[in-house]
Amino acid sequence: MLTDKQVEQYREDGFLVVEEFVPARACDELRAHATALVEAFEPPEEVSVFTTHEQTRRSDEYFLTSGDQVRFFFEEDDTSTVNKIGHAMHDLDPVFERFSHTPELAAVAADIGMRDPVLLQSMYIFKAPFVGGEVTLHTDHTFLWTEPQSVTGFWFALEDATLENGCMWALPGGHRIPVKRRFRRADGGGTAFDELDETPYPQEGEIPLEAPKGTLVVLHGQLPHRSGPNRSPKSRHAYTIHAIERGAEYPEWNWLQREGLPRRGFQ
Ligand code: FE2
């Protein structure tokens, strides 16, 4: 699926942008489906907010038990707008299931050296016009820890992601920097970060990953990346899958736990 040059680029940068990976109609189908799910959702009186701003993520029970569910999280600054859906649509929802399991994705995973990938988590991110929140700089390894490190992100632009509507930013080569934080379930309930290295990531050299609709961005689990807020009138819908190696250890203190769900690959 990928050329040698693309694989080399991924090794070098820690990410790879593959334009025109998903046909426009598959993007439209997923978008329409996610929108319909939100419209059918009856928000409870007190909604669960997704934020990356607090030192310890606001880890309510609804979030911590969403690893094997399809759940709705709202914007911090506008609690009437959905920020994202997570985290097991790829297993539980037929439309997401179809989008997430393709021979093309299996081939990309194999090309970048994944031996036996298991789909661990899925998220549908709305980044709504005007109110879509930012995601602060992080690595995915921090949040989905395996020994050895194996988490890999597969991020899909379902609409054009631009500088205006909050595209991703990444630090080329930053995946070679040892991970600085670890997010885990805390002993007394809730969650905590283990600070492994308090020095900040270098900001210089960070580049925007503008991505036309249909683009796949593959992200190494140790790559520092972020996305800005959306203050524009255009939404920025995206879908992500995080995969790990079947053979890697997945500690039980990871926030995300999946009771009784299959451990399926991309096929
Ligand atoms: Fe991420």
Task: Indicate the topology.
Elements (H helix, E strand, L loop, with lengths): L3 H10 L1 E4 L5 H17 L8 E2 L10 H4 L5 E6 L6 E6 L1 H4 L1 H7 L2 H9 L5 E9 L9 E4 L1 H4 L8 E6 L10 E3 L10 E5 L5 E5 L11 E3 L6 E5 L4 E3 L10 E8 L22
Parallel strand pairs: 2-3
Antiparallel strand pairs: 1-12, 3-4, 4-5, 5-14, 6-13, 7-12, 7-14, 8-11, 8-13, 9-10
Fe (ii) ion binds next to loops.
Keywords:
267 residues, alpha+beta, Jelly Rolls, eight-stranded mixed sheet, 14 strands, binds fe (ii) ion
Task: Please give a structural write-up.
The protein is α+β, with helices and mostly antiparallel strands. The chain has one domain (4-41, 52-245): q2cbj1_9rhob like domain (Jelly Rolls). It has helices at residues 4-13, 24-40, 61-64, 89-92, 94-100, 103-111, 140-143, and strands at 15-18, 49-50, 70-75, 82-87, 117-125, 135-138, 152-157, 168-170, 181-185, 191-195, 207-209, 216-220, 225-227, 238-245. The strands form 3 sheets. The protein has an 8-stranded mixed β-sheet with strand order 1-12-7-14-5-4-3-2. A 4-stranded antiparallel β-sheet has the order 6-13-8-11, with no helix packed on it. β9 (181-185) and β10 (191-195) form a beta hairpin. It is globular and about 50 Å long. Bound molecules: fe (ii) ion. Residues 138, 140, 153, 225 line the site of fe (ii) ion.
